[in-house]
């Protein structure tokens, strides 16, 4: 974990430099002894485990790193045109995914990676992978980084060339929706694991479902979802409730 912590901090410093920021620009979003997450995942093949891949999603924080520990294909990422691209295992490498926190901080210059995992076909045996999720300080706030205008323009050019971004997953780290990056991360995890939310965070899950219902209604009415959920009072309520429960999420 310590090694990966160092690699992830170094890698985000390279990202900062690549987009015209000082190398230490992201350092303030990390705690001195930042907590990260790592898990070992088994995807059974098409026998009993059929359908146990992972649906399209974006990771939460700044960056995550995946070791594909067996030779199976299965990981796919979505490009700007909306096409799913295979990410076959390459020995001695890690796959790096950009998280929604980084997209929020850079105003979309670093677009979060939409990805999914397909289960191995029957008879291929189980696929194993080991993802490392770089943590971020719970209290880190949504900020707009000073990404130079010429770099922002490059991103706009890419989108213009491809006719906009086609993405199967909604971007949920909208500024104004949640107070802190850590809070947005917690809500994203509850949204991804509603069974865990039912048991441990029923009030927060109820808020997420209310938000989803509002967004669905706003879409139907042609309004933007962010306008429909910009209420400061609700954000404050979530902040108070989620702060004292955050430790339990970190333990699982
Ligand atoms: Fe992921």
From TrEMBL:
<keyword id="KW-0560">Oxidoreductase</keyword>
<keyword id="KW-0408">Iron</keyword>
<keyword id="KW-0479">Metal-binding</keyword>
<dbReference type="InterPro" id="IPR005123">
    <property type="entry name" value="Oxoglu/Fe-dep_dioxygenase_dom"/>
</dbReference>
<dbReference type="InterPro" id="IPR027443">
    <property type="entry name" value="IPNS-like_sf"/>
</dbReference>
<feature type="domain" description="Fe2OG dioxygenase">
    <location>
        <begin position="34"/>
        <end position="136"/>
    </location>
</feature>
<protein>
    <recommendedName>
        <fullName>Fe2OG dioxygenase domain-containing protein</fullName>
    </recommendedName>
</protein>
<comment type="similarity">
    <text>Belongs to the iron/ascorbate-dependent oxidoreductase family.</text>
</comment>
<feature type="compositionally biased region" description="Polar residues">
    <location>
        <begin position="221"/>
        <end position="236"/>
    </location>
</feature>
<dbReference type="InterPro" id="IPR044861">
    <property type="entry name" value="IPNS-like_FE2OG_OXY"/>
</dbReference>
<feature type="region of interest" description="Disordered">
    <location>
        <begin position="212"/>
        <end position="252"/>
    </location>
</feature>
<dbReference type="Pfam" id="PF03171">
    <property type="entry name" value="2OG-FeII_Oxy"/>
</dbReference>
<dbReference type="InterPro" id="IPR050231">
    <property type="entry name" value="Iron_ascorbate_oxido_reductase"/>
</dbReference>
């Amino acid at each position: 974990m310590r090694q990966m912590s160092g690699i992830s901090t170094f890698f985000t410093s390279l990202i900062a430099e690549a987009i015209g920021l000082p190398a230490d620009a992201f350092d303030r979003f990390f705690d001195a002894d930042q907590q990260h997450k790592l898990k070992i995942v088994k995807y059974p093949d098409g026998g009993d485990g059929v359908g146990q891949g992972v649906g399209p999603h974006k990771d939460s924080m700044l960056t995550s790193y995946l070791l594909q520990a067996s030779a199976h294909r299965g990981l796919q990422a979505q490009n700007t045109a909306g096409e799913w691209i295979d990410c076959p295992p390459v020995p001695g490498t890690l796959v790096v995914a950009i998280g929604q926190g980084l997209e929020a901080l850079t105003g979309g210059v670093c677009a979060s990676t939409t990805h999914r995992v397909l289960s191995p076909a029957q008879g291929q045996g189980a696929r194993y992978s080991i993802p490392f999720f770089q943590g971020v300080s719970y209290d880190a706030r949504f900020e707009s980084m000073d990404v130079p205008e010429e770099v922002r323009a490059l991103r706009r050019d890419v989108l213009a060339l491809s006719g906009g971004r086609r993405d199967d997953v909604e971007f949920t780290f909208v500024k104004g929706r949640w107070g802190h990056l850590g809070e947005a991360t917690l809500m994203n995890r509850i949204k991804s694991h509603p069974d865990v939310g039912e048991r441990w965070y029923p009030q927060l899950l109820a808020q997420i479902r209310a938000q989803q219902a509002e967004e669905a209604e706003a879409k139907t009415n042609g309004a933007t979802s962010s306008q429909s959920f910009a209420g400061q009072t609700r954000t404050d309520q979530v902040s108070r409730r989620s702060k004292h429960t955050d430790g339990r999420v970190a333990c699982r």
